[in-house]
Amino acid sequence: MIKHLKNFFVSNQNKDETMLSNKICVNNDIIETLRNYIIKDSNDFAIVLTGPWGCGKTFFWNNYLSEIVKQESKTPVYVSLYGVKEVNEIDVKIFFEIFSSLPSVKKSVRELKFNKEHGKMLLNTASSFGLLKRDKYRVNVSELYSLGKVVLCFDDLERSSLTTKEILGHINNYLERDNIPTIIIANEEQIEKDDDYFDLKEKSIGRTIRIKNDPNLILYNLIESSFKNNRYAEFLLTHQSLILETFKKSEMENFRIIKQTLHDFELIYNELDSNYNKENLTIIENEIENMLCFTLSCSFEIRKNSSISSALHNIKSNQEFMSLIIQYSMEKAMKKDTQQEEPTRASLLDDFRRKYFGYTNFKKVRIFFESIHLFITTGIFHKNDFKKEITKIIQDKQQEISDHNLIFDYTFTNPEQICEEFFDEALKNTIIKLSNGEMYLSEYPKAYLTFRNMSKIIELPLDSDSLKQFILNGMIESSTQTEPNNYLKDTDLHFPSSIYKDLSSKESNDFKEIEDKLKELNDELKSQFYKNKSKMVCEWFEKEEKNELWNIFNDPIDYWYYSLSTEDIRSILCDSSINMVNYLYELLEYRQKNFDLNENELAFLKEMYNIINNLLQDNTTSKLRKIILYKIKLTLENKLNLK
Fold first, then answer.
1. pTM of model > 0.85
2. For the residues of 452-475, what is the DSSP string, one character each?
3. 8 A C-beta contact, residue 363 and residue 322
4. SUPFAM superfamilies of this UniProt entry (predicted)?
5. Which sign does the torsion angle of CA 154, 155, 160, 165 carry?
6. Any idea where the domains of the chain sit in the sequence?
7. What is the bridge-based pairing of β-strands 150-155 and 75-80?
8. If we measure between CA atoms, which residue out of 308, 433, 460, 434 comes closest to residue 377?
9. Are the CB atoms for 606 and 568 separated by under 8 Å?
10. What pLDDT, on the 0 to 100 scale, is given for residue 369?
11. Is 581 helix (H, G, I), strand (E, B) or coil?
12. Fold of 14-213
């Protein structure tokens, strides 16, 4: 699922240098213009950085300009005007930003785990009680820190509760009185109807720069700074072009929406990454890309409150989504009237498909994901619904793949079952799967016969001499990957004797060796299965799980509890509670009355009988336990006819 991209990741040694170079290269003219403004000793005008919300203005200051300010041995002071209700709050924020930048203060703040918001709360509280008006508490900022070494940045101008006249008038004091270089970040489109702003702009703002950063660079930095999961970050960088292309098609400019949507998709990615194996993820690799595209496009349309988002409402499946579009396409093709009509739900869905997924064969491309749409619209990620949808997608894909797999029909009585178009690919994939042990054990003898017959007609990558060993090696590998509970039943271990009639003497010996190996490996799996079950029996006695024990002792066919070792039997008789030892007596009594003795069970019961005799002679066995063990002994004597 994850493709390793060396080009996207640079070494730690030169990472910062590379990124700084990219930044300066992309915005070289803007950088130099602002650098010249910052280094001037006297400035009586401000510079405005404008652009739509989310285009990267604040990011540009935090990651570009503030670094340049520091390079010029000055202190960057960032002040957000968002929610500011009084002019004096601006001074408080500036004071605290300057004050907290002092080295000695930084150290104290770290030691006290004291952040800027705590400081602002204290200063606001002090201001509310009039404490800052008293001489004792008055702070002269120019004495505290040289304002000639400060560069001010005021952000969110259009989001302040104050009028632009009040804010710019106050900012102008810093320009005229202290000649401080001042950057103002604003979305002028949101304040273009404010006449006061443009009147004051002529007096205090000398230059306006529109930020249009490189989307690739913004997205790269957004991913790098926002996502700590390296695997997810790498996945996003792998699909950077898809993200940007989808964003461009949405005709939106706010990169914050991308950030939020990618945070949403991280839940989806983590669910896939943690719950599905590599093989399943490879099967649905293209679907995962479609999930990302759908998550982005659906989020964009909903945030725009577009008519398309309404059209997507209440769709329950990709099949329903496609059916509506197909029906619309057919009706459109049959209409002779080309006059434009009011958009319908189906036409809007078709617009959505064409807008974000292009003119691909949408019958073969999954576009709509119900669980993801529900997540985007409600904000709640229903994991169980998502798992059901993904499981169904995987099953559908596996069915498609199985249609292209080579079928082990060694008599070739049903050649139509093998897809001619995909035969070479299917043959190659089948050999790889056999070699990797990815086939069921029962398939390997069939594979030998199939390849043996095929080799007489067409050239194969396996010759007759290496075929047997290839099959044996694959079987061994397959057995290591097979769960013990999936051991083969007897009916899957035997092949009709007629098979040998068509085999040469050497081939017969080879196939007999393969059959024997199959039985040997299967016996090992079966033995391990019983050992695992035996451990469970011991645990059930220890935890007093009577229902589980009843199920196995009441089974007339599968008497697998007889695989208990001598140590297991002794442990059950000696270490189980008196209550559970008595329950064992009840189980054996019930079995004696209702089932015939099995040969394997006979050896098990004889072993138990001998152990009980020894325990009855052991002085360390409690009196009450001896009484119950004696009852079991009598039951075994009846069962084993030992009277």
1. no
2. HHHTTTS--SS-HHHHHHHHHHHH
3. yes
4. P-loop containing nucleoside triphosphate hydrolases
5. positive
6. 14-213, 217-400, 415-527, 544-640
7. parallel
8. 308
9. no
10. 94
11. helix
12. Rossmann fold (3.40.50)
Angle between helix 255-275 and 230-238 (nearest 10): 120
pLDDT digits (tens, 9 = 90+) for 301-329: 988 877 888 888 888 888 888 888 887 87
| Letter string b/e over residues 303-313, b meaning 16 or more CB atoms within 10 A of that residue's CB | beebebbebbe
Percent of all residues in the chain with a pLDDT value above 70, rounded to a whole number: 79
549, 553, 559, 560 alpha-carbon torsion, rounded to 10°: 10
CA distance 259 to 226: 8
The CA-based angle 296-300-306, given to 5 degrees, is 140
Structure tokens belonging to residue 70: 């520091």
Q: Do residues 211 and 54 lie in contact, with contact meaning Cβ atoms separated by under 8 Å?
A: no
Could you tell me which residues come within 8 angstroms of residue 391 by beta carbon, excluding any fewer than 6 positions away?
none
Q: How many residues does the chain have?
A: 643
Tokens of 159: 């989001």
* Residue of 557, 558, 611 lying closest to 584 (CA atoms): 611
Instruction: Show the tokens assigned to 96.
Output: 């605290």
- Backbone phi, then psi, for 185, in 5-degree steps? -105, 125
484: left (phi over 0), alpha (psi -120 to 50) or beta: alpha
* 276's tokens: 């599905």
Under the phi-then-psi rule, with left for phi > 0, alpha for psi from -120 to 50, and beta for the rest, what region is 553? Answer: alpha
The string of DSSP codes covering 515-529 is: HHHHHHHHHHHHHHH
What is the bridge-based pairing of β-strands 46-50 and 75-80?
unpaired
pLDDT confidence band for 410 (50 / 70 / 90): low
- For tokens 């009586």, name the residue: 44
Q: Which residues contact residue 380 at a Cβ distance below 8 angstroms, ignoring those fewer than 6 apart?
A: 374
Measured distance CA(69)–CA(468) in Å, rounded: 74
Distance, in Å, from the CA atom of 366 to the CA atom of 385, rounded to the nearest integer, reads: 17
Residue 5, number of CB atoms within 10 A of its CB: 12
Query: pLDDT (tens digit, 9 = 90+) per residue, 206-226?
Result: 888 887 767 787 788 788 878
